[in-house]
Amino acid sequence: MPTIYDLKPKFQALLRPFCMRLADAGVTANQVTLIASGLSLAHGAAHIMNPGAKWVLILLPIILFIRMALNAIDGMLAREFGQASKLGAILNELTDVISDAALYLPFAFIPGLPAPLVVVAVLLGVIAEMTGVIGVQIGASRRYDGPFGKSDRAFFFGALAILLIIFDPGRWSTVLIAFACALSAATIVNRSRLALKEVQNANS
User: Fold this and answer.
1) What is the pTM of this model?
2) What superfamily in CATH does domain 4-203 come from?
3) 10-33: pLDDT as tens digits
């Protein structure tokens, strides 16, 4: 199923010249990974201290875009400039879920939003990423299947932030977050199913 993640190769092509300059300057993939995570944690802290503040909500789509760019850059530095490492692989997976939690859990503090549902949405996102990693454990590839991968979640919460600037929370926001939960659940099932299918095909 197509997801925003499918646009990653084109996005990487745009970033490649900048990535080359970073590599020439001695910047490492792990440094970029940690910077992206630190940026997410800082925004999350600001959001918790100022729940629903318009300036925080306006910043979120910008932070998400920068994070997406940094994530693409750290991957290119690792693969294309010989910086891949076991530590980098661990950091990449851990900081992704930590950053997601930092950026999205503060929505639970916004008055009028269904806090339990927000928490469920974030937890399902974490489980979806864990499911993708489990694919490697059973002999498949790291699964990035949709319909609601990391990039899709970022788009969703970025759009939700913009909508909350324009409209007060209400039934519409509850329905949207419930829909995000359903898409995450579908992603967990899809990644599990396709990982098993990949292993079966490899053994047949």
Assistant:
1) 0.92
2) CDP-alcohol phosphotransferase transmembrane (TM) domain (1.20.120.1760)
3) 888 888 899 999 999 999 999 999
d(CA 154, CA 65): 9
> What is the C-alpha to C-alpha distance for residues 40 and 35, in angstroms, rounded to an integer?
9
Cis amide linkage into residue 169, ω under 30° from 0: no
Structure-token pair, residue 152: 């899709």
Tokens of 33: 């990974």
The answer to which of 14-18, 34-38, 136-140 has the lowest mean pLDDT is 14-18
At 25, the amino acid letter reads A
Q: What is d(CA 129, CA 152) in angstroms, rounded to the nearest whole number?
A: 12
CA distance 160 to 153: 10
